[in-house]
Amino acid sequence: MTFNNFLTNLNNGQEDKNKLSVLFWLNNAKKSKKTKLIPFYCRITLNGARATKWGFSANISIKNKKDWNSKLQRIMLDTEEAELQNDRMQRIKLDILQVFAVFELAGKPFTSLDIHNEYLGVKPAPVVHTLQNLVDKWEEMFQKLVELQEKSDKTLESYQEYNIKTVTYFGSNKPLMDFTESMWEDFRLHLRTLVITTGRNKGQTLHTNTVAKIMGHFGTLFNYAKKLRWLPIDLYEDCGSSRIKAKTLALTTKQLEHLIKIGVETKNEGLKTAIDIFVFLASTGFSYKDYCCLTAENFTTHEDGRKYIVKEYREKSPIAKRYGKSIVPILKEAHAFLDKYSENPDNFPKPDSHEVNDLLKIAWEIIGVTEEMALKNSRHTFINYARSVLGLPEVAIIAIVGHSTVRTTEESYLIRDIEMVENDLKRANL
Questions:
Q1: Which of these three, 120, 151, 172, is where a domain ends?
Q2: How many CA atoms lie within 13 A of 427 on its CB side?
Q3: pLDDT (tens place) for every residue of the chain, 430 residues total
């Protein structure tokens, strides 16, 4: 279809995608008190939606409104001036139709205001996306994932807390394009010195891993802005969760053995219980939440006599869709725990995790751990023990712990040290 034919079809009403109306009307409210002339205005309507309430001035006017036929859209005077004015209205209409045709051929959504502005040469003000706009858009997207049960409410709540800290620091009206590289480091330093004002940790600064998570989410927001085309693709190329990464902490084999010894010898029952729990988690790869949810049905014995814990993966774990269940062999360290509590999950101690972490600080001081360790590091310890000492391949480990990829295990959990290398060489008889 040629451009001229396209315009002809528009005028003949053969194009049914969008319905355009170009209407001229007399604006009596603008009648000149001096010349008594009444100006014509032109109003553009697309699919019933007006571009503006009044339209724009056509720079044409007449003295007597009776000379205007609104139905025919013509000035009904047999004069040269009237003919010129009618011709001008036709040219305006044709120019608007041409603008409309260009929008139609582009195949992108447009409005009557777009046509109005393009005809008049009005450049729309650039859209300025702010940090609050981005946060609102991201939370809207994540909420849909929660509704689809692909993400959990708890995860959304955590991210919303991160968003509050981010917006509080930078300000909700901060334009995204105003961010600079130096602001990343400034924000990280701010978080490292941020004092907690509520809860059991009141008066303390944020944990290193918490800072890393907030910074990682900060990068995630900017990557999402790129997907929305709110930011240039090449801006902050390295922004993301890897920008500031939490340090992987795990007990070595010797430290784990020392911890078990302390648990046997200590007379502090609270500390003994805390160590029991940590060692059990470090022997199974379970999180504390997984541990608290164990039931008698999760324990099974194979025909060869080996005992296993069979448990559904956490719902959010992508690997659950592939394998369905995690099958965890019970190591000797875990056997000691089960024997102590009669292999009955109902007898398992389940104190508050914060209390356990506070008690474990005593053990860390005794065995010489200077890093900020917690219950969650038991999972790191299991993965490193399974790989370094037991020699399990990464693919077997991810099936036990529920990681979605080997990369997650290697980058976030494994600590490749001399102990792992030496054990690999021994197994290979080298």
A1: 120
A2: 13
A3: 444 455 555 555 544 578 999 999 999 999 998 999 999 999 999 999 999 999 999 999 999 999 999 999 999 999 999 999 999 999 999 999 999 999 998 888 899 999 999 999 988 777 889 999 999 999 999 999 989 888 888 889 999 999 999 999 999 999 988 888 788 888 988 998 888 887 777 888 888 878 888 988 988 898 899 888 888 765 555 554 444 455 567 888 888 889 889 988 989 999 999 999 999 988 888 888 888 888 888 888 877 778 888 876 554 444 444 555 677 778 777 888 888 888 788 889 999 888 888 899 999 999 888 877 888 888 888 888 887 777 777 777 777 777 666 666 665 555 555 555 455 555 555 4
DSSP per-residue string spanning 91-104: HHHHHHHHHHHHHH
215/295 same-domain check:
no
Helices (H), 193-238: 208-227
Same domain (yes/no): 49, 163? no
Q: What is the CATH number of the domain that holds 139?
A: 1.10.150
Is residue 408 located within the same domain as residue 330? yes
Identify whether residues 257 and 362 lie together within a single domain. yes
Please say which residue of 161, 192, 227 terminates a domain: 227
Domain total of the chain: 3
Range of the domain at 293: 253-427
The reply to whether the predicted model has a pTM over 0.85 is no
CB atoms under 10 Å from CB of 148, counted, come to: 8
- Asked, for residue 235, whether it belongs to a domain, the answer is no
H helix intervals, 300-352:
320-323, 332-340
The Cα 399–Cα 318 span in angstroms is 11
Q: What is the CATH number of the domain that holds 341?
A: 1.10.443.10
Instruction: Give the CB-side neighbour count of residue 360, counting CA atoms within 13 A.
Output: 27
Could you list the beta-strand ranges (E) of 144-222: none
Has residue 54 been placed in a domain?
yes
Distance separating alpha carbons of residues 322 and 299, to the nearest angstrom: 22
